[in-house]
Amino acid sequence: MTIKEYVKVRKEELKDLVASKEVVPHLVIVQLNEDDASNAYVRGKLKDAAELGIKADLYKFPVSMSEAELLKEIDKLNHDDSVDGFIVQMPLPKGINEETIKLAVSPAKDVDGFHPLSKLNPCTPQGIMDYLHRENVDILGKNAVVIGRSNIVGKPMAKLLLKESANVTVLHSKTKFEDMHNYIKNADIVVIAIGKQHYLDNRFEYKPSAVIVDVGINRDENGLHGDAIPGLPVRLQTPVPGGVGLLTRLALMENLLKIK
After folding, report:
1. Using CA atoms, how far apart are residues 151 and 221, in angstroms rounded to an integer?
2. Same domain (yes/no): 88, 171
3. Would you call 259 exposed, middle or buried from its count of C-beta atoms within 10 A (0-12, 13-18, 19+)?
């Protein structure tokens, strides 16, 4: 099942779940940037919410907003009983510390899953795991390679794979090429999230049974590209665009419904 097919099926399931609730779940998106990727992502999230019957509001503030002013708005949302969950869309303007903002969001309303005390997982890794499960990808005892060590994708992805008893190796920009080659050659699952267009290519060897999850989003004049070239000789490779971004958006709605 392609990611688009999977998301469509799962949305129908979630739509029924939302309809069964006595009170409509309420999501708020806080945005302080004019980033093209963020704008597209926010539009997608609002569209998803509308399709599922979820109430979603966009609170768009000027990029000149100070950290103190943003913290006041977050505090209001933390104490607004009509709001079930909210996110602060990244990136943030210069002068605002992302870690400070993530920690200011109440764990009880943190649908992004970024707060260390949140009971939810970050959306991208959770969305990937849900899709791997739906595709019956074996994880137990398998060799999983995560390329990238960000707090949003790489580290939590490794943690979720480890939780399901995969043999997890985290590689990054300081990993030697020959070591990278060796780990990828023996990997059953590769998750790449380093923001280097078409880094995974024919320089590497792959197991024909391997699964490659491409989290990369790289823009040029020809559009969006992943961290892997399309059409690698593996069992399953997620596309860019139309891949992990859809899973991330879906997981956000799933997280909201777990709160609500």
Report:
1. 29
2. no
3. middle
Whether 112 sits among the annotated catalytic residues: the reply is yes
Tell me the three-class secondary structure of 20-32, residue by residue. Answer: CCCCCCEEEEEEC
In the set 31, 84, 89, 110, the catalytic residue is: 89
Annotated active-site residue 130? The verdict is no
| Number of domains forming the structure of the chain | 2
The structure tokens 């074996």 sit at 138
Q: What is the pLDDT of residue 219?
A: 87
* Whole-number Å distance between alpha carbons of 213 and 132: 9
45 is catalytic: yes
Are 144 and 77 in the same domain? Answer: no
Range(s) of the domain holding residue 189 = 123-246
Reported as a single tens digit per residue, the pLDDT across 197-229 is: 999 999 999 999 999 999 998 988 888 999 999
Q: Report the pLDDT value the prediction gives residue 38, as an integer from 0 to 100.
A: 87
Low-confidence stretches of the chain (pLDDT beneath 70): none
